[in-house]
Amino acid sequence: MVNTVGSEPSLLEPQALARAEMDLAEKFIFEACTSQVAAVSLGAAHIMRAGGKRLRPLVLILVAKACGYEGSQSSARLGAAVELIHTATLVHDDVVDEADTRRGQYAVNTFFGNEASVLMGDYLVCRALRLIAEEPDLDLMREICDVIVSMCEAEVLQIAYRGDLENTFENYLTVIRNKTACLFSFTAMAGAHVAGAPSATCEAMRTFGLNVGIAFQIIDDVLDLLGEQNLLGKPTGSDLLEGKFTYPILHALREAPPGRREELRGLLSRTDQLSQEDLRSVVEMVREAGGFRAALDRAQEYTDRCLTALSEAPPGPALDALRRVVSYVVERQI
Amino acid sequence: MVNTVGSEPSLLEPQALARAEMDLAEKFIFEACTSQVAAVSLGAAHIMRAGGKRLRPLVLILVAKACGYEGSQSSARLGAAVELIHTATLVHDDVVDEADTRRGQYAVNTFFGNEASVLMGDYLVCRALRLIAEEPDLDLMREICDVIVSMCEAEVLQIAYRGDLENTFENYLTVIRNKTACLFSFTAMAGAHVAGAPSATCEAMRTFGLNVGIAFQIIDDVLDLLGEQNLLGKPTGSDLLEGKFTYPILHALREAPPGRREELRGLLSRTDQLSQEDLRSVVEMVREAGGFRAALDRAQEYTDRCLTALSEAPPGPALDALRRVVSYVVERQI
């Protein structure tokens, strides 16, 4: 799990292998941001420019390549679509969470206001679905609708579990599976699908995506507690301040020795009023109780499953590149 | 335009003719509200129960019937889908507009909070699209995505034009065409489409829907200025308080005599601070300048166009029922 020796994992090589298709995906994203309404174009471009590493298009394009897809249109178009959907959910989350910063930029809602943020998110999702509707396959359309429905359900569940000191690992995993991993799962499956891969391979890629997505989110949640604001672009402990109890916290709530547990419960029962000092205490108690270690071990289990499923794709440079992407995802900053 | 003599227009007869399909549409709506997450089911059911007269499913089902569709599944399913999309946009508008009441119920955002409202709107749209994806026709899917994109663009434009005393009729018509009429247009076209109507008929129904939608929105905007809160379920002048200058206002800004015009501009330049007294003054000045009359005349033009297009559907009880629906839409409460 921990990147102990050798070079820092990097996306450079995988990106180089997928350069042509990634550029095309960027063109589709740019076109989707282009509206006859100037304010919409400006808003959409601002949102998509702020956006990260294009991890999802990279995975989709590399899976397609690994499975023998020799074109570029379909994988780039679907890659653009999943990135637009992912980004739209971040925009709507900013309305939801009243986050102040994300990715080091002002969150969209503080820039545009809640009103325009809601509309921009809707706009981006529908442009994404319109791209997917270019593929001559209603099954993809049906599946992505189901995925977005699951994502909404997970976000509602997450609100319902807020501040719940008795929440379970199972509930936490259900939330992250639906809010994060299902879209990764669709992404990897769609890559195999456009390549015309046999259905066993499509299903293996689905399993790969699901498991890498779960590992990704567990690690993201660990970083939210441990990371530096300038590395992650969001304030340390932002989940905690919203009453979102992620894996390390849930572990500590179970495993901390009784006295410490009561202290922890006391702090976590008033997450809206925690000082920086309180935050540091929580992180320290979680560390003592082995919460971070347990979370990373759990992420490792999902990483192992994801690598097993991934190995069912045909060997070659694209598969090697996907393994590097997995390393990057699970080893960042830890 | 004005319902001068005879019986109050009513939806009872059209609804009776479409009873079986309307019941089935209601079943599809109920199923779309059913989620594995209890809070989502509760929220969705609350939202859809609050919802109005199911005008859009009624139009879709009656157009299909008029065009010879003898089934019920496709028209009911698509009818449910357009109603879900329409309602989802109301939910997101409530976030947008910070409205306090809508349809006599507390607006969804004051009931659930902005966070859950955004998610519930997303959920309903994706369940609707999932229903449309059941139809074996990607063109419908592509078109509805384009319609929702247009709706988002129109809402952004509407924000951009807020408080703009120099706004034009053209801009106002562009906004209402995209925010309201395009979905009506899709609705009527889809009815003809599922009936397998020839493409000239499908296009005529699209024109019917577009024009009835524009007439509907102009009248809705008149009622927002003139109506009683308890009739419309929203506060009189709510558009005005948000700086939305609709047809009657735009007319008065042009046609009022110079002294009155300055007085009107003075009031409209501080719409966020208008008292009830001020509101009454605005309504009075608009009336003096012939703004309501002009708006209703304009709505009548679109109604005439809609009826001309509608007459291209095959004659029969369903076409008669559609004419009654048009009467109902354009004669309510005026």
What does it look like?
By secondary structure, chain A is an all-alpha fold. Chain A has one domain (12-331): Orthogonal Bundle (Farnesyl Diphosphate Synthase). Helices cover 74% and strands 1% of the residues of chain A. Chain A has 16 helices and two strands. The first copy, chain A, has a two-stranded antiparallel ribbon. In chain A, β1 (101-102) and β2 (105-106) form a beta hairpin. In chain A, α4 (55-66) packs antiparallel against α5 (73-97). The longest helix of chain A has 28 residues, at 199-226. Chain A is globular. The A-B interface holds A 35-37, 39-40, 43, 92, 95-97, 114-116, 118-123, 125-127, 129-130, 133-134, 136, 138, 141-142, 145-146, 148-149, 152-153, 155-157, 159-160 and B 35-37, 39-40, 43, 92, 95-97, 114-116, 118-123, 125-127, 129-130, 133-134, 136, 138, 141-142, 145-146, 148-149, 151-153, 155-157, 159-160.
Supply database-style keywords:
Farnesyl Diphosphate Synthase, 334 residues, globular, mainly alpha, two-stranded antiparallel ribbon, 2 strands, 1% strand, homodimer
Major sheet of chain A, described briefly?
A: 2 strands, antiparallel
Could you tell me the CATH topology label of chain A: Farnesyl Diphosphate Synthase
> Strand order of the main beta sheet of chain A, please?
1-2
- What is the count of distinct domains of chain A? 1
CATH homologous superfamily caption of chain A: Farnesyl Diphosphate Synthase
Poorly predicted parts of chain A: 1-6, 98-106
Which architecture name of chain A does CATH use? Answer: Orthogonal Bundle
Share of β-strand residues of chain A: under 5%
| CATH top level label of chain A | Mainly Alpha
Which descriptor suits the 3D outline of chain A? Answer: globular
Mean pLDDT of chain A: 90
Largest interface summary: A-B, 41 and 42 residues
User: Structural class per helix/strand content of chain A?
Assistant: mainly alpha
